[in-house]
Every structure is written in structure tokens, then in C-alpha cells.
Batch of 4 targets.
Target 1
Amino acid sequence: MVGVFGRSLSFPNKNQARPKPPMTHHNRSVSLPNRSHPLLSNLIDQLSDLDAWSSLPPARSSARLADGLSRLRNALDSLDDNLQLPQAQNLLRGRPQLTEKLLEDFLRFADAYGIFQSSVLAFKEAQMAAHVAIRKKDESKIASYMKARKRIHKEMRDLTSSIRCVAKCDILREPDHSLVPDTELAAAISGVVKATASVSLALFDSFALSFAARRSSWSGLLRLSKKAKVDEPIEELQCTEERLWSLRKMKDEEVREVLKKMEELEGWVECIESVSERVFRSLISARVSLLNILTL
């Protein structure tokens, strides 16, 4: 009986000499660095949302345009988060020409949205004066309102020309020989620039057509008809200008109807103004992060 117990005690000693579990755990951890950072994955998802929005027919409603601006703001905020990562900072510090081009593009975007905010503010002031003129049936003061609509039309046309210059240039013209994670990040940054240009063109083009005179609006659409994708006037922002020139002949009920349309127009303008202001702030924040990368 004692000999049997002695033999049985030797088995645990053999098992203790084979430490295999740590080897298995070590092998599994090797694959982790090859995965994209969660912040980069989130940015790629935001760009996919913007691609889905852009693939739809041209925006014809304020809600649709505001949705595109909201998606753009999310992508810009996600880009700003990625710019805080060492991976992004090393990439951009190693390519100063790329960073300088990004700074230039984001400055042009921010300037465009700043001008847009100023144009909308001036239009809202003209809108308030038009309310008084409509109530008093004063057609002479309607002329200043029409001038404000023409002015915002011209300013939006100028902004589209500026943004198209950015859209024509690809920040990744040169082959990128960096590591795979850096290549993915560089492509995502390029995607944000392209998405910003695309949504901005939709905004400025739609406003330009919406605030143009009826004849000018249609001629603009005909000029652009040969392009693959044409932005159209925003339904809620269009105004029956002919009715404003015949205020004296209107009955009180018709005047109230025109005032209601004007109030609805003002509400939609304020909606887009609010979302575009958030985009402007996100552009400024991302540009500050780029400046910090170059200077720190």
C-alpha cells in the first residue's frame, strides 16, 4: 500500500515542469497592434455615412441639407479626435507639405462658412424689414428685400467657385510609402477634405439657386444640366417673388398667407444657419489641432 502511494506522488511533479499556458496567451497578443484604432474606425464610419448621403439625389429640402451638414460635423469632430493620436501626429509631422495643404484647405473652408454666416445674418435683417413692408403693403421697400436675395445669390456663387478649387486638388497626389495604419489614416483625412467640399458645394449651390430670380434660377439649372449631379433650389427657401410686387392688390387673407410663407422661410434659414455654425466651429477646432502638430 505504501509503495503505491509513493508512485502516485510523482505525477504532479511531471505536470509542473510543462508551463504551456503562458505561451498561448503571448501568441494571441501579437495580432492586436495590426487592428485600426477605434477612433480611426469611427472616422471611417462617419465617412461612410457621408458617402451614403451623397449617393442620394440632389438635396431639395432644408431637412435633407441640414442632415448632410450634421453628418459632416460628426466627421470633422472625429477627425479632430484622430489628430490627437500620436499615430496621426507622427504622420503629419513627417509630411509637412501635406499638413500645410490641409491648413490651407481648412482655412478656405472656414472662411467660406464665415462668409455664409454673415450673408445669412444680412438676409435675416432684410427679412424683418420685408415683414413690415408686407403688412403695410409698401411695395417700394420690397425692392431692398429683392436686392438682398440677389446679393446672397451672388455671394453663394462666389463661394462655390472657391470650394471647387479645393475639390479639384487631391492632398494625396504623391504615392504614400508609409506603414499600413498610416496609409489608412491618410486616406481618411483625404476623405474628410473631399466630403467637406462635397457637402459645402451642395449647401452653397442650393442657396444660390434658391435666392436667384426665377429666370436666373432656371438658366443656372440649364447651364449645369450637363454635369453628373446638379444641386437644385431648396423647396422651403423659394419665394413667389411675383406676389410681393402686387401687395396693393392683395386681400388681407392673401397678405397673411404671404407672411406665413415668409415666417416658414425664416425658420428653415435659421435651422441651416445653426447647423452650419457647428460645422464652422468644427473646422476651426480641426485647424487648431493641425497648427499644434506643426508648432509643438
Target 2
Amino acid sequence: MSVLFALATSLLIGFADFGGGLLARRIPALTVVVASQAVTVVVLGAVVAATGAWTAADARLWYAVAAGAIGPAAMLCFYRALALGPMGVVSPLGSVGVAVPVAVGIAVGERPGLVQLAGAGVAVAGVVLAGGPELRGTPVRRGVLALTLLAALGFGAVMALISQASSTVPGLFLALCTQRLTNVAVGGGALWAASRRGAAVLPAGPEGAGARRVLLAALPALAVVGLADVAANGTYSVAAHSGPVTVAAVLASLYPVVTALTARGVLGERLRTVQAAGAGLALAGALLLAVP
């Protein structure tokens, strides 16, 4: 079951990254983060109220608060990188944050077998190759690389924190709602500060009501991105509690292959030979990781 939930995490994050990166090309990245997460607060708040999940509150909710504080910064860096650089390059490099939850798993005593270690190495190599990779270039590309690596560390920290926030289903709903509330509070504060500095917070184009109409028209897409992201956090938490964290984290990091293939199908971004080979290696690594 852990393998299935971890792979579901990859699918959900891959689609969310594609949608978020695409939206950030016409809407300020911070606005994409705040608006998409605000939708999830409404949905999760309704779930918590309907199920009485608030009774599961305990000290571990502070893990969710920490994840919620880190998340907006990581997503902002990542969406900006996706908006500035090719999705097929940025997304694979963003998966190096898997090192954080893997290190946590090893620290708590997990010892993967030789086959699983080989699978992890093959999968991570495949994910990186699936992006090109293109590490050289102009200062703009180096800036994109820096944003991506910062985002990766943030994503890894969020994965590690949210998996510790609860071990029950009601507790998970409450933890995810708490995380998203913190996301909106932190991101909303940053958005307000940005607007005070004169930074753009509405879509480029017509000012005033025209820009607001563009944002309102994008709400369905923003909702899909936000809900896919929160669902990915949920499936990862289940995967981490039902099997080795080291295996779940690596399988959950395969999402760049989904993003690259989606970009290929929707945007026509061409896959180079090395990218196709990387996708194959990532899948081979996933199979090795699934071996008991």
C-alpha cells in the first residue's frame, strides 16, 4: 500500500507543478500560491467540521504549522523557476529535496536493503536525467537553478514535517487544514507586503477590474492546483506511515517525470534522448524500490 500511495503522490505533485508553473506565466507566482491554497482551506475546513477532526488536536500540530510556514516560500521559489525556465528542466532538479525525508528515515533507524538502495540511486539519477539536465548557461539560468534548489530543500522539509504531524485519518485532515491555514497566513502577509512595495499582485494586462476578471477566470485552475497539492501531502503521509520513509520519499520524488511528460503533451516541449532515458531509469528504479 505504501508504494501505491507514494506513486499517487508523484502523479498529484506532477500535475500540480505543471498547472502551477503554467499559471505563474501569466499570474504573479505569489498570487498563484496564496489563491490556490486559499481554496484548500475552504475545502479542508468543511471536512474538519463535518468529521469532527478538531478533536484530534495535539502537540504534533506544530509540525503542520512549521510545514505551513515553509511551504509558501518553497512554492514561490518553484513557481518562479517554472515560469522562468523550461518545466522539463526545473521540475527534475526540484526533486533533490528527497534527501531531507530520506535522511530523516535513516536517522530514525531505517536501513533499506541493497535492492532498494540500488533502486533509489537509479530512480534519482533517472529523475535528474529526465530534465536534460542543463546546469550551464546565462546568469538567468543560474538564478533559476538557485530558486529550484531552495524550493527543493523546502519541499523536502515539508514532506518530513507533515509525515510527523499525525498518524490517524482525522488527525491528518486537521494537520493538512492547519498547514494550509498557515500557508495562507504567511503567503497572504507576503502578498500584502509585496503590494505595499508596488510589486504586481494581479495578472499582467488590463488594470483594475480587467485584471481581477482574469484572476477570477483562473480560479478553477487555481483550485485544481491547490487541491492536487494538498491531496499529495495526504497520500505521502499515508505512504510514510504504512512503509519505510526512505522508500516512500524516493517514489514520491518521481513527480518530475509526470511534469515533463505533461509539458510534452500539452505544450509540445520536446524530450531529448537523455530525457527519455531518464524517464525509463526512473521507472526502473521505482520497480526496484517496490521489491519487498
Target 3
Amino acid sequence: MVKNMRRNHAIILGILLIVGMIPCATAATDTTGQIGGDVGYYAIHCNVDGAKVYFDNDYKGDISDGRLLVEVYTTGTPYSTISVEADGYETYTTRIVEYPAKGETVDITVDLQQAPIGGDMGSYLVRCTVEGASVYFDNDFKGQIANGELLVPVYTTGTPYSTISVEAEGYETYTAPISQYPAKGQTVEIDVSLQQSPIGGDQGAYLVRCNVEGASVYFDNDNKGVIANGQLLVPVYTTGTPYTSIRVEASGYQTYTAPINQYPAAGQTVDISVTMTPVTPASPLSPLTVLGALCIGGVLLMLRRRS
């Protein structure tokens, strides 16, 4: 009897060891909790080591050995601008027009130019309600509006800019003289209010309504902008090749895709309603969990038969 009790104790101890191993192994192998889905990459090549890289307003790291690799989620809201900064160099800013697919790398080459010696810095803070609007000082592209604003550093000893222009698809271009100039360390604010372009002539429009703020809207493969205040107006030419599909993407939501089968006439607006569904990640049982359950069941069956 003592021998049987020892055997039972050994069997029970074995069960406890198996059960204790399962959560650890599952935690080590589980990758279902990764947020954002598949990833792609941007490889930033720059001639200045230590230069700081920003996507929109997000700091991504410093250039090292002439390169910085930036990981992005292919299912997330795409970035619109890249800025690279380094002491003694003029800030480089440009649009991001190519987006990597899963496992793909997009190369961006940046050539920083040395700043004029002895020039003190001030800045303009351009505020605008239209995300992604492009800002120009005279004819120099300075970047795009992100989170309602764009900071434009300038040299106080340089030739002052005379005009500002702000452009966005579906809106009338804003142009105004620059009459106030920042001193060293000073920031001058410029408020820009863009007006929607009147629809007429050979233009119509789609009004995309969506339940997810910031969702990216694509007609075929053309990025048309992001949802703001629940909607996005997309002007189209009635004489052009018609779009065939709409795709709406947002991080944490299933991608919405549908055919476009109604086309606006001149001066007409066609409504498209989009309802996005949150992603609910599945949590399947790991093979180790199933094996552990089978072992426990077999041991309990043996104990029952011997009793």
C-alpha cells in the first residue's frame, strides 16, 4: 500500500510539473498579441551620422553608419512626411509617397546641406485644420500639416520669405504675404483657413463617411487622405478614368474594401458610408497546451483504473 501511495505521489508530482510548464512555454512562443499586423521597412540613407529622423512628428532614431532602418506596420495609418535634422545642417523635409508592403523595404536617400555660418534661428508655426496640407514659403516646400500644425525654422540673417502658400486636394489654395519675421529664438504663428473648392465644371465628388477618425482612404491604389470629423471629401474629374474600388484602412480595424459603382456627374456629390470593424485577435491553443491536456487526462484515467 505504501508502495502504491509513493507511486501515486510521483504521478501527481509529474502532473503538477507538466501544468507548470505549459504557461511558460505558451508565453515564450505566443506571438498573437502583436499589435498592428504585418510590418514593412524604410531604409533612410543619409550623409550625416547622428542626424535625427522624424516621420511626421514621431522621432524614429539617429543615422548610424549612414543608415537608419525604420519599421512600420503595413496595416497602420501611413506617414506623410519625413524630416531629418542635424546641428549645423539645414533641416531636410519631404513627402513620403511610397509605402512598403509586408516584408518590403523602401529606400529614402537624404543629402543634408550645411547651414550658412553665423545665422541665428527663429521659426514660423503654421496652423491649419486640413491634415496633410502642403506648405510652401515662396516656392520652397516646407512640409505638410500634421496634428494641425507645421513648424518651419528659418535663419534670421537670411533673405526673408515674402509669401506663404498652403495647398490641399479639394480646397482652394491659400496664399498670403509674410509681413512678420521672427527674431532669434522667436516663433511667429500663422493661422491658415482653407476653403473647400466649389464643385462645378467637369468635377464631381465623393463624400466618404466613416466611423474611425484618421482612417486612410484609397481609391484604387491612390491615397486620398484621412477621415477627419467623420468624413473626407474626394473631388474627381468626371471626364477622367473612373475609379473602380474604395479601400479604407486603420490600425486595429479590419480593412474595408468595396467596389465603386456610382459615379458623380458635374457638380454632384456621391455619398459613401463606411463602417469599420475592430480586429479581434484569435488565441488558438498551442500544440504544447493540447499535449499537456492529453497527458493529464491519461494520468487521471490510470489513477481511476488502479483505484
Target 4
Amino acid sequence: MNGRLVMAGYTHYILRRGHNGEAVFRDVDDYQRYLALVGDLKGAHRLSLQGWCLLPDEIHLLINPWREPADLSRFMQRLGVLFSAAYNSRHGHVGTLWESRFQCGLVQQGHWRLACLRYLENLPGRRGLTDDGRWPWTSRQARQRSAGILDPDPDYLALGRNPGERWNQYREFTAMGVSDSEAEFIETRVRRGQLVGNDAFIDEIERVSGKRVEPRGPGRPCKKRKKRKPC
């Protein structure tokens, strides 16, 4: 797939790294400032925030641009500029803070959107940043409280009839952990700018966008074309 595919009304997994693997968060104030900027900007850019994980050198976001695809790039550009200015001023940093481009993969609703939530909210543990699963800079706490800058997620809401039931179902789901194969699938797809979902999702995006967005693998036969009747 050439270029970055962004579509209104779909969830996108955003990954952004620090330049040359450098830290983009040095202290609590940095984390808090970044999340405050996300909260301030997402409404103006008509985005729904469905999940996040902030690591010392990486940013993971699940975002849905609900009007214009370009709103996502404008949001990420503005967010990066404002945070960089504050970071450089506080820490005396000089030079580029971010990698040149953020990485982005469309996510299928249902299982794969919940799987991405589970993956990013478990990342601190997978990276060895916490032993007990507690990391203050993911959306997990906001999800439990149904508060903060987190927007309602249809798949999460469908887990139960009330906040307590939803949280218990989600907690059981996340307690299952993330298999290495699932983590690799999500990581590879996002890094390559591909779709995080199944073949039906690929067909849907190709139909809606009118573009071939994924190469057809050897196990994925091409659809047969109907033969034209002779005149």
C-alpha cells in the first residue's frame, strides 16, 4: 500500500516514536502536558479518542476522525508542534524530537479493536516498565472510571449493560494477556501502514475506498470475474 491510508469513521492505530529512539517524556509533567494537549485538540479536530499508551520513547493512540480524513494529520501535526515547543523549552532540547512521520493502521471494529486496546494497555508490562500492570499513562484507568479525555468506544460499551459490568468483562479480557503472535501481527501491520483486521475488513476498505490496499497473498484467492455473454 503506497502512502498513508486514513478514512473518516474508522479507528486508526497511531504510533509515533522519538527521534533515533530518544525519550520524549522525561518526567510526570511531560506526560501530563501531552495528554492535556490531546484533550484540548481532539474536539477542534473532530476526533474520538478510544485508547492510548504513552511510553518514555513512544506514543500509541487509537483515534477515529469522524468527519474528514485530513483532520487526523492536522491533529498529529499540531499536537507534535505544541508539545515539542514545550518540551524544548523545559529541557533545553535542541533539534528534532520526533521521527519524520507517524505510523498508522486502520483497525477493524469488534475483536480487533478490543485486541488493540488490550495490546496497548498491556504494553508497559510487555516492555518491562511495570511488574504489577500499573502504569499511569495508559487509558486503562480512565476506562475504569469512565472519565477524563477518553471517548465512548462502541465495542467497549457493548461488553455490558452498565459501567461495572463492562469493566469486569474487559478486565477478564485483558487478563488473558496478549499472545506473541497477536502482538506481532498488530505491531507489523501498524508499522507497515496496513490494516489491522481480517480478510472481510480488507474487502470492505477496498470497496469503500475504491483502491487496492492490500496485496493478495498465496492463501487468498482472487475473486473470479463473471464471463460476459457473447453478443
